[in-house]
Hints:
Layout: H1 2-13, E1 45-51, H2 54-61, E2 67-75, H3 84-87, E3 95-102, H4 109-120, E4 128-129, E5 132-133, E6 139-142, H5 146-162, E7 172-173, E8 179-181, H6 189-192, H7 197-213
Parallel strand pairs: 6-7
Antiparallel strand pairs: 1-3, 1-6, 2-3, 2-8, 4-5
Amino acid sequence: MIRTRIVLAALAAGLLGGCLQPAQAEAVVSAPEAAIKANETKGLKTAVFAGGCFWGLEAVFSHVQGVSSVVSGFEGGKRADAHYETVSSGTTGHAEAVRITYDPAVVRYDQLLQVFFGVASDPTQLNRQNPDNGTQYRNAIVPQSAEQTRVTTGYLAQLKKLNLWKQPIVTAVEPNRGFFAAEDYHQDFALKNPDHGYIRRWDAPKVAALKRVFPGLWKPDFTRG
């Protein structure tokens, strides 16, 4: 309990390291439509993306049409290690990630990939996103089905041929080892803390870019996890 109060106090003061460091938003890239469109069955589906601090990923995808839930958490390691302070050591195999629940009748998986590459993360940074360094901030996609694997592989190949970024794409496609939700104070963080220094300097520009670059996918309301 005492440790929890210390962490929460540090959050409020912006004193913790890792994804709490102030940063500038990455350059926005107008990611093209996918040549291979997703063809998923009816009903809600999930997608898992890792790309730096999960606050920013959550903030962006919570404003996408057809998304009904975005949960911040960890992927790639063991359940026992899925705790923020432990993952922040960079030794667990976990990456900060989000689990997105979406309706493919409203937004296709390939469109989520467009948003991921276009405004949510920088796919050229290896084991980091700007000031956040370590394998826990790697850029990765974790397909949840054979169809998602097919679309992801095709879209990555498409993007690599276009040379949209100054550096090569290093985004990994990782096996689904399980997703574990982060602590409650990380959930809906941008919604609850709009004036936090990190949110204002890094994540608010990403959300603004989503509205500008993908107006057809934009929704003004924040979808709570």
